[in-house]
From TrEMBL:
Its cofactor is Mg(2+). It comes from Xanthocytophaga flava. This is ATP phosphoribosyltransferase. It is found in: Cytoplasm. Pathway: Amino-acid biosynthesis; L-histidine biosynthesis; L-histidine from 5-phospho-alpha-D-ribose 1-diphosphate: step 1/9. The gene is hisG.
Length: 213
């Protein structure tokens, strides 16, 4: 069998549709059979793995997948040894700190000794350390935005896009920790043959992006 590249994409979620669209715009045809973990491209030496986004950096680091598409937020939080090879420009969002709307928040030091709920403990603790803030991080995996209203924490650190989730939970965004977008990641030591396929793919992605600008 000739060499091919394995691409990990999100099975279903906010990255899926734009990831698949980008691949199609690159002229790559494949059957995206619903619920199928694996599918092969018809006209490009690639195979797709549909996974949960949180698992993608680990699979790419292990070499189970050669490359993957994931949010930069997840890439940084999982802290896996992979290369960020190209920025894709979709699924843009920010990781922000938010507090109850009625709080008279003035500056970051107001969070000193406070409790903060998040699904991004690594990014948050690095940020707090950098700014010399000591706070109590509560890691929760979902529905972070309800933590203040149920009395679990004083603040949250979560992904924000339109801001309407914060709004409907009586919260206000007070600091942006970082801005994220979908990125293409790769295993650090691809074989020359697979690297060549990746280069070809990046070339096509750049052409698609250039045509849009
Ligand atoms: O099932 P799986 O684990 O694969 O998916 P997931 O549920 O963990 O992730 P998913 O599909 O929700 O998001 C995938 C990626 O999309 C994230 O890692 C981000 O990089 C990016 N992204 C872009 C977002 C958002 N926008 C976003 N708005 N991820 C999450 N949200 C959530 C946020 O957590 C909050 O609950 O949407 C809410 C806020 O949205 P607004 O518009 O109300 O501000
Ligand atoms: Zn996830």
């Amino acid at each position: 069998m000739s060499e091919m590249i394995r691409i990990a994409i999100q099975k279903s979620g906010r990255l899926s549709e734009d990831s698949l669209n980008l691949i199609r715009e690159c002229g790559i045809q494949f059957n995206n059979g619903t619920g199928k973990l694996k599918s092969e491209a018809a006209n490009f030496p690639a195979e797709f793995l549909s996974l949960r986004d949180d698992d993608i950096p680990g699979y790419v680091a292990d070499g189970v997948a050669d490359i993957g598409i994931v949010g930069e937020n997840v890439l940084i939080e999982t802290h896996q040894k992979v290369d960020l090879v190209h920025r894709l420009g979709f699924s843009k969002c920010r990781l922000s700190l938010a507090v109850p709307r009625g709080d008279d928040y003035r500056q970051l030091t107001d969070l000193h000794q406070k409790r903060i709920a998040t699904s991004y403990p690594r990014i948050l603790s690095n940020f707090l350390q950098e700014h010399k803030i000591e706070a109590d991080i509560h890691e929760i995996s979902g529905s972070v935005e309800i933590a203040p209203s149920i009395g679990l924490t004083d603040a949250i650190c979560d992904i924000v896009s339109s801001g309407s989730t914060l709004m409907s939970n009586g919260l206000k965004e007070v600091e942006v920790i970082f801005r994220s977008e979908a990125v293409l990641i790769a295993h650090p030591n691809l074989s020359p043959a697979r690297q060549q396929i990746l280069d070809k793919l990046i070339f096509r992605i750049k052409s698609v992006q250039a045509a849009k600008n």
